[in-house]
Task: inverse folding
């Protein structure tokens, strides 16, 4: 499709919308960002359309120059119908994203789940270029994996492949919003880490985190990791346990998908070197005793996303830069 | 490839070799079986060639009628080089299977791991026909899963995708031959079940299994399951715990691959209804609390292999009935 000169990639989040014009060489032009208006589907959709217009203007282009718009949307997405089925972050159900935007902008649109789009971005424009397979593990407010095989997204029959965030890693752990106890997401996501840190304080652990909690009224992952870096024992334990859980998760992905690379994305992947070092330490420990994992794990196969936030923009652009059949495994 | 009229499918096991002529409609003709001669690679290869000749004779054909031979081989296989890399069951390393058989029989040959071949058989000629994806879980002396997406085998970069037998399900469990403790294979395979039953006896559990052990000098899975069926409490507990472990394994496969079907194969899958009922009970219990698994699990999606031993023969034939590019995912 060498005739396509410009497309727009959009990353729709619960708090902000990023958009950029992307050219045929997958370069980002005219990158913009604006707040997401939530609570009213029509207003949210209108703010997405505005972000597209802003990006086009920022690239000194007009909508007539744009061949198509690709969008990454949080929550459950029906890419065939072009509908956002359900998003807790955006507060919508069955939002007619494609129909609205195509009418509003007069440009062809395609949508996909935001994490899937980031995985496609890593595969088409990041570490995954030229690799036969890639697993993208997002570690942030939520935890989920997405699998790209031969450049194409493997969604599963319900679009639920890679839901490692809802595998149970601690049967006695806290209740997850999926309904089970001790899911990876309930214990090792941002909110899960903060909750585990608070639990220790409630159980009487001495820690500088107690003062932070009293001062701010809430703990964040950043508080826990910064306090750990300052030498606090309990915060250090929470961080170490988190990297063990996430290391186990990566080991599970390596064992089951045996991919060419695992790319770590999301806020936790970019929270500093200590968590990532801990993940590698857990993988090295497991590979030492496991004949299978020893073949599957190499430190340079498990890497922090070099694209960061650009992964979703580039992946959203890839949705419309590539033919649909080049993007999806049938399974 | 409608011009192909006959191929031979071969299932090479540690104790016996099965072979059959397969026609273009995937019907089995002239099925034969003979003991495997192990301990000497040249003799093992010669006995495989003999099995092929016997099958061809049994179908009232000659080797001149055979377009190609496909073989399922235990252990690590390099399908591109046509070499059996390593097989504990056959006691060989770097066995030149394809070169030997092509010279001996004068017919084109293709080889693949035996479990992968059974998965292809289920996909091409069994429950997987027409489905976008399938996970085949073999539960016998070993435990492993194989993934078929869009009719093609997803091998992973090291040919080690689906190695769920070496995920840890009980950190305090017995040592596995892979080097780790409490792998699924160490606790829920045939030998793992017998070992757990013996452990209970050693710890003083009263059970009719004690008499079996004294009488025969060893316990088998069949002993444990038959004694459970006769109402023995400890044997019943071992069986129930086994189905919980295997149910968890199927839940993990559903969560990560979200396949259209999970096919259960191997000796344990055909050990009677009680284990399978227990696996479904565990899945139903988990689906009750998990929003994700509730979408992924339906009783009719997890089925015992209807092809049984024929799966490997039909899959081996599929290796040569289909084009290579139709059989493999690049990942």
Result:
């Amino acid at each position: 499709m060498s005739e396509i000169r410009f497309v727009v990639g959009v990353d729709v989040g619960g708090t902000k919308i990023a958009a950029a014009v992307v050219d045929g060489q997958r370069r980002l032009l005219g990158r913009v960002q604006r707040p997401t208006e939530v609570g009213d589907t029509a207003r949210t959709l209108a703010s997405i359309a505005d972000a597209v217009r802003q990006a086009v203007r920022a690239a000194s282009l007009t909508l007539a120059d744009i061949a198509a718009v690709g969008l990454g949307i949080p929550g459950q997405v029906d890419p065939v119908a072009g509908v956002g089925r359900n998003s807790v972050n955006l507060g919508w159900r069955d939002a007619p994203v494609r129909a609205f935007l195509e009418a509003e902008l007069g440009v062809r649109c395609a949508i996909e789940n935001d994490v899937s789009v980031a995985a496609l971005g890593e595969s088409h424009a990041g570490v995954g270029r030229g690799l036969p397979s890639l697993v993208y593990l997002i570690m942030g407010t939520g935890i989920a994996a997405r699998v790209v095989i031969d450049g194409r997204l493997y969604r599963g029959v319900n679009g639920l492949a890679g839901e490692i965030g809802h595998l149970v890693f601690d049967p006695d752990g806290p209740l997850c919003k999926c309904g089970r106890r001790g899911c990876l997401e309930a214990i090792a996501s941002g909110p899960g880490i903060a909750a585990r840190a608070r639990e220790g304080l409630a159980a009487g652990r001495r820690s500088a985190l107690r003062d932070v909690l009293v001062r701010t009224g809430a703990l964040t992952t950043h508080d826990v990791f910064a306090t750990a870096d300052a030498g606090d024992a309990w915060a250090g334990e929470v961080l170490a346990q988190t990297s063990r859980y996430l290391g186990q998760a990566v080991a599970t992905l390596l064992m089951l998908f045996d991919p060419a690379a695992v790319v770590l994305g999301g806020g936790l992947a970019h929270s500093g070197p200590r968590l990532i070092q801990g993940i590698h330490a857990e993988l090295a420990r497991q590979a030492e005793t496991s004949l299978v994992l020893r073949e599957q794990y190499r430190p340079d196969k498990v890497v922090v996303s070099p694209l960061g936030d650009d992964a979703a923009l580039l992946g959203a652009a890839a949705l419309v830069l590539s033919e649909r059949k080049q993007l999806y495994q049938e399974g």
Q: What stands out?
A: DSSP finds eleven helices and 13 strands in chain B. The mean pLDDT of chain B is 94. The interface with chain A takes residues 132-133, 145, 149-150, 154-164, 166-167, 178-180, 252-253, 255-260, 286, 289-293, 295-296, 329-331 of chain B (CB under 8 Å).
